[in-house]
Amino acid sequence: MSQHKQALDPDFIQKQKRRLEALKAELQSSLDFRLEDEVEMQESRTNQSHTSGSDAQDSAQQDNNRAVRAHDRMRLQAVRRALEKIEEGTYGQSEQSGDPIPRARLEAAPSALYTVAEEEVREREQDL
């Protein structure tokens, strides 16, 4: 891992911490809501008879909820890790290389754990 350090001022880091904490709460709330929604759909399905059309619609909604929850869980994991990095004093450094993540990227995506180039490689590898 590279030992490059990025000088992020304490005010910026505190601002990012507040943003990350708000994002963490938002994602957790979304996960909770979607889980409750899925439970309600399952209860409704067991208490009522459905036509094949409504069953298909419920199934599509459940699939969508699961996909959104999976995405939100991944984002929540990144947010938690970014908050850990703030506590460790390594916020703004790539998890992979230790290289600085540009401030503009952190402003746009406060939970960024990798440089843009590293993230692009990771996404391509996941698509394989």
SSE order and pairing:
Layout: H1 10-47, H2 52-88, H3 103-108, H4 116-127
Helix pairs in contact: 1-2
What this model shows, in words?
The longest helix has 38 residues, at 10-47. The chain has 128 residues and is an all-alpha fold. The protein has a domain at 10-93. Helices cover 73% and strands 0% of the residues. A zinc finger (dksA C4-type) spans 94-118.
List keywords for this structure.
DnaK_N, elongated, TraR/DksA family transcriptional regulator, mainly alpha, single chain, 128 residues
Number of helices: 4
Unreliable stretches covering 5 or more consecutive residues = none
Most strands sheet:
none
Helical content band = over 70%
Q: What would the average pLDDT be, to the nearest integer?
A: 87
How big a fraction of the residues is strand? under 5%
Q: Please state the CA-atom Rg, rounded to the nearest Å.
A: 19 Å
Shape: elongated
Termini gap: 26 Å
- List SSEs in N-to-C order: HHHH
For the secondary structure, the number of strands is 0
SSE-based structural type: mainly alpha
